Amino acid sequence: MRRYRNGEIWNFESQTPAGGAGVILGLDGGTTSTVCVCLPAAMPLASALPDPLPILSRAVAGCSNHNSVGETAARETLEEVMAQALSKACSNRAAVQAVCLAVSGVNHPMDQQRLLDWLRDIFPSHVRFYVENDAVAALASGTMGKLHGCVLIAGTGTIAYGFTEDGREARAAGAGPVLGDWGSGYGIAAQALTAVIRAHDGRGPQTKLTKNILDILGLSSPDELIGWTYADPSWARIAALVPVVVSSAEEGDEVANRILYDSVQELADSVIAVVRRLRLCGKDGKDPFPLVMVGGVLEANKKWDIGKEVINCISKVYAGAHPIQPKVEPAVGAALLAWNHYSKEFTGDHGS
């Protein structure tokens, strides 16, 4: 176990007693923010989890997607937020029993292995590690740590991810904005910006998006929009314009409405693709399955409710979809996932 970056980040450990009660860390890392929560490892093994959950601490940091900020900066964020969570819980790395890192940008076994190797350098040898895509934590937040069903995330980015009870998994979308995360906050806002430019130079219809976007950004002309966009083309900065698209659609703007309807179909198609591949709906297509809905794009937006429209589209194909709005955040889902794995190993229960 060594100290990454510099020793200062773990200096608090000299003030915490050795041999403290065991803890679990769950981390949800995305392109906008990274959250880490700390739970006690000694929660009762009962059919129902404690309500409310005994969350010992919560810490927040910035982006930890290595595709967005680079591997070094992403790891610094991950280490910082884990150290903060342990410090707030008056705990230390020696007390950690299991860690679940659920991070956007983890799309390949090589991504997982690099993070696992890095974690083993930071924590003692007894700690169990689980590295997943952030979609897994989002699913676990709706199923309270159980991996079964499908999750749709639509925030800055988007992905649909599904698991069967026998451990098979599948995903759709989630390849980032360059490869077409249509339906995501970035995708919606980028189409709106494109529509403004097209209207300005005569290639597209006039739209209320022009005035509404320029007003919110404090710009006077669509020409200035080009400079604004490329001055800092970060995904979250662009995605922050989604509320303007929604309000423009609610005002009756045809261009904004078309962008939203197309995005709804893209999001629904992602879920349908995953459900079909995993046969989550059974052979006849009617079996019920949990559909966890996560992300700012899917939250109710006045009259134009993107999440509701997505559910309507999916239900036309798979009536067994059971929408779930998680009661806990994805970081807690990650912690519960780690706790479930740890508890099964601790008790010798290796069943499903």
Automatic annotation (TrEMBL):
Catalytic class of the enzyme: transferase
Domain spans labelled ATPase BadF/BadG/BcrA/BcrD type: 25-338
InterPro entries reported in the protein's UniProt record: ATPase_BadF (IPR002731), ATPase_NBD (IPR043129), Euk-type_GlcNAc_Kinase (IPR052519)
GO molecular function, one term: N-acetylglucosamine kinase activity
Pfam families membership: BcrAD_BadFG
EC number: 2.7.1.59
Entry-linked Gene3D superfamilies: 3.30.420.40
Domain of life: Eukaryota
Family the entry assigns: Belongs to the eukaryotic-type N-acetylglucosamine kinase family.
PANTHER family associated with the record: N-ACETYL-D-GLUCOSAMINE KINASE (PTHR43190:SF3)
Record-given protein name: N-acetyl-D-glucosamine kinase
